[in-house]
Design goal:
By secondary structure, the protein is mainly alpha-helical. The protein is built from 6 helices and no strands. The radius of gyration is 20 Å and the shape is elongated.
Length: 210
């Protein structure tokens, strides 16, 4: 089977719609965030140096940052599917003896940590995009203001979706400190993003109505 990142859009959507467990919601969240990053890159690439020379250096830095985040998110999208497959494999491990039960439990807990950790990392990467979106609202090509707005909404969808995948795995983790830490971090990331989102979308709306 080809790697997730090697699929065409049509192949990916067909795979997502299939009876296979992966790709699923976690991969969809990561890819949504990667699209947000890509849109911000597009805005940077169309805020060209000749037309906007005074902000060219800032745009260049932002462009490189968004590209790096996009690449990380694509990697996480593939890793999410892998983490889920590994988790499902653990549920199939034998448990006829106490030794097998103990081994299965340990491996299952390790897999749950990974399955919760990947979407949490998606959230960490996604929220980094907000500051770049805020900058592009101010200095990016004004003809692309709606693309920045769409990117912000995609970030919100990705964050909310990734959080669900953190929670469904964290609830089964027996290390309560680790589980609570994961849940708390998702809340803090969402709070941080909400504050940044509101600051970004207000000027987007204002520019669309002037």
């Amino acid at each position: 089977m080809p790697q997730l990142n090697d699929l065409s859009i049509s192949e990916y959507i067909t795979s997502l719609a299939s009876s296979a467990a992966t790709p699923g919601g976690g991969a969809a969240a990561g890819l949504t965030a990667a699209q947000a990053a890509a849109l911000l890159e597009m805005v940077c690439n169309l805020t060209n140096r000749d037309t906007f020379p005074t902000v060219a250096d800032q745009i260049s830095v932002t462009n490189h940052a968004c590209k790096s985040i996009r690449e990380d998110l694509l990697d996480l999208t593939a890793r999410d599917a892998q983490a889920f497959d590994q988790l499902m494999a653990c549920y199939q491990l034998p448990r006829s003896t106490q030794e097998e039960v103990d081994s299965r439990t340990a491996r299952l807990q390790q897999a749950l940590r990974a399955a919760a950790g990947v979407p949490l990392e998606v959230m960490r990467e996604t929220v980094k995009l907000a500051i770049h979106a805020a900058l592009l609202v101010e200095i990016g090509n004004p003809n692309l203001i709606t693309d920045v707005g769409v990117a912000i909404h995609l970030m919100e969808a990705a964050l909310s979706s990734a959080r669900l995948n953190v929670l469904i795995n964290a609830r089964l983790i027996t290390d309560s400190d680790f589980a609570v830490g994961c849940k708390s971090e998702t809340i803090e990331i969402l709070k941080r993003f909400t504050a940044q989102k509101n600051g970004c979308l207000a000027p987007v709306e204002e520019k669309l109505h002037t």
